[in-house]
Amino acid sequence: MKTVEEIKAAIEAAVPGAGVEIVSNPGPSAQHSLLIAPESAVAVATFLRDHAELALDFLSNVTGVDWPDKEIAEKVKVTRTVTKTVEGVEQSAEETVEETRKRVEPGYLEVVYHFYSMAKKHGPVVLRMRTANRTDKVQLPSMTPVWRSAEFQEREVFDLFGVEFTGHPDLRRILMWDGFKDHPMRRDYVEPDDYDYEPTAHDEVLKKAQAHQAALAGQKGAGE
Amino acid sequence: MAVDEGLKIELGKQGVFVTTLQELYNWGRRSSVWPMNFGLACCAIEMIATTMARYDMARFGAEVFRPSPRQADMMIISGTVTKKMAPQVVRLYNQMAEPRYVIAMGACAISGGPFKQGYNVLKGIDRYIPVDIHIPGCPPRPEALLEAFMALQKKIDAQHLTGEDRPRHLDAEAQGLFPVPGQGEHDLEPAANKSVWTVPVVIR
Amino acid sequence: MMEAEGDLLEVSMGPHHPSTHGVFRMDVALDGEKVVRLKPVFGYLHRNHEKLGEDHSYLASMPYTDRLDYICSLTNNWAYALAVEKLAGQAVPERAEYLRVITAELTRVQNHALSVGFLLQDMGASGTPLMYGFREREKILDLFEALTGSRMMCNYMRFGGCRVDATPEWLDAARKVVRDLPGFVDEYEALICTNEILMARTQGVGILRPELAVSAGVTGPMLRASGVNYDIRKVDRYGIYDRFNFKVPLGDHCDVYDRFMIRLLELRESIKILEQALKDIPGGPVMDPKAKIRNFRPKAGEAYGRIEAPKGELGFYLISDGGPNPYRYRVRPPSFVNLTILEDMCLGHNVADVVLILGSVDIVLGEVDR
User: Fold this and answer.
1) What is the 8-class DSSP label of residue B35?
2) Phi, psi angle pair for A30, to nearest 5°
3) What is the pLDDT of residues C187-201, one digit of tens each?
4) From residue A107, how far is each of A131, A183, C177, C260 by CA, in Å?
5) Distance between CA atoms of B61 and C108, rounded to whole angstroms?
6) In this predicted model, what pLDDT tens digit does every residue of C270-314 receive, in sequence order?
7) Does C45 touch chain A if contact means CB atoms closer than 8 Å?
8) What does CATH list as the number for B33-168?
9) DSSP secondary structure code for residue B54 in this structure
10) How far is B117 from chain A (nearest CA, A)?
């Protein structure tokens, strides 16, 4: 089978303007993936499916991954001019100090597709797509018109992560009920406070149960 | 009126059988408890195994699985009750005719079990409907289900037909319909039926 | 539950319905007896498996995988162990590979015995065929219990091997069970396969064309009943499957009857694998001595591992950030993806056939909803 570099070159030759990047996998499995731009995703997908040698006719797995906003603290060496008073005389001198700067790397939702070829019996080829952010720009093109097997799996990603697939024929919640508002697989999902009875609480659950009891006591105190 | 056990045996030897209406009535009920054909999760497979040749639930008069709740006497909650499923379980229980019994089979039906911390898992069906027998296990073995079944039979046997503790179906005042929880935006509403389930006191 | 909409009758089958294999629901629109629309509704057994997987350590998720497809806990264990071994670059000793093949093929035998039993049960053959399946299953469950300590939830495999070794007595007992299995299949085939009612109700029903099957990601016996030669044991040759001599049965009518027969034929092939594995099993350790049990933290990276589970391709996709818990834990369930084309297979058939077609997909809700 072709390597990811060869697949990238083939895609770029066939679909002009397709922004393809290689996302390397440092782990021992060495399953590297290709990050494709959402705008050209359907064209790339159709190309991969119809390519004579690759023939990726089998979309096995669709996964949503949530990457929340990350606060990155990094130490930067900064050179600045300081004014000092030495023996009553003001002097300006340059000195280098280490400063911790914080910046927020914006998060995104990612959808990962695993492809195999039933005709050529090879795989997997891994494709990824990322949304612009996690709040309002969560649209990605649907792969369902190209592979039917994406239909329910994309609905699941929509339900649990909140990625909106444009071009999906029937995008509704699939696992949770229709009136449900949250996307529970996101990392910042707040579960309903249901810790009133925890007979053998420990670790995280113990903390949550204690918080629940404290909140309950606070309510009672306010009511009296 | 209770009959003296010795006298009863003595009369039996003479070919005279004496019983009370209560005994006869309870004997009839406990010998043909028909379960509802209702499986939820893993435990359902063990429930089916219990009805099959090796464990043979028919010995206890409970092999007739009824597809309709109207014809069933007993509901075996065999598996995890999710929040999406809980309203349906309560609705099915409401549709059953009295006298009706509930066996909560397995850790999930009792408390949520291993999936307890899941956002869509109900932490025990006894938050919405009264449960007669709890069987721990994940899943409980077929023998455990048979044991639970025998415990239920003993419970039926011990019921008095009159008095304060008479079963619900002989009590005209008793409430037979249990409120079906609604599916809200984040959770079930209400989170528990307070008239059925009160928060047990945890001593730490 | 029923509501007339113009000329169409809308019926909600499930989530409590005697024929829907657990808490599965279908919203069916009928024109007379004919199905004109069918929408599956999922989630009644959504137990948040993936979320719990992210909250637990790698090893602590192993017992949860038992409860995915709760009929086949050992193949689930294997798929998960395989994915983690890929993620961590972990080797498996030879004896453990043999034990994995033996337990997985025994699992396949009991799953297929049950699934044909349930299919016939749905058809109205109440009791007997299912009871035959369960009779064989109990023998295999006794083996599982002797080896792992549990009938259904075996929790047997570890990253880098298996939890306990099989004793020579256990292997002898397994050989005895396997020796009796062909007799069971013969008996079953003689009783059922040429049954007139079975043939009339299943032949030509629920046709699934191979092109659609491939596009819809259908795997397992369903795919092979449509004539596509794709068995992950042959394609990926994971574990030690390249050492065994077995065939991949293929159907050519793509209907319910083919799917039923494929399972019986696969039973025979599994018995062949079992005979070879039980003959050749070598001595040695069942755990890789370098395998880490405590404080297991794979390096950052990701891996997708898959096996041929009795119902199709069961895959696990894991992303590690170097911590003790997976960052993302995804299960690729075969039953769920196989249901994608349920509507296509049912359109135009009578409502009574829907039950049969669903039975031939062979779903387990623990895996569909997770």
Assistant:
1) B
2) 55, 35
3) 888 888 888 888 888
4) 9, 16, 55, 48
5) 33
6) 999 999 999 988 888 888 888 887 788 888 889 999 999 999 999
7) no
8) 3.40.50.12280
9) T
10) 8
The C-alpha of B200 sits at a distance from chain A's nearest C-alpha, in angstroms, of: 7
List the Cα angle C289/C291/C293 in 5-degree steps: 120
Residue C1 has pLDDT above 50, yes or no: no
**Hey, which chains touch C, using 3+ CB pairs under 8 Å?**
A, B
Rounded to 5°, the CA angle A135-A139-A145 comes to 155
Q: Find out whether C90 and C82 touch, Cβ atoms under 8 Å.
A: no
What's the count of helices (H) and strands (E) in chain A, helices before strands?
Answer: 4, 9
* pLDDT for position B172: 77
Q: Token pair of A61, please? A: 């797995």
Q: How many CB atoms lie within 10 A of CB B198?
A: 9
Three-class SS state of A165: strand
Interface of C with B (CB under 8 A): 15-18, 22-23, 43-49, 51-52, 55, 63-64, 67, 70-71, 130-131, 134-135, 137-138, 151-153, 365-366, 369
Between chains, do B120 and C52 touch, taking CB under 8 Å as contact? no
- Tell me, what's the ipTM? 0.87
pLDDT, one tens digit per residue, over B56-70 is 888 888 878 888 888
Note whether B118 contacts C48, CB cutoff 8 Å. Answer: yes
Name the interface residues of A facing B (CB cutoff 8 Å). 175-177, 179-182, 184, 189, 191-192, 194, 196-199, 205
Provide CB contacts within 8 A for B89, sequence distance 6+: B77, B81, B125, B128, B129
- Find where tokens 């949250």 sit: A182
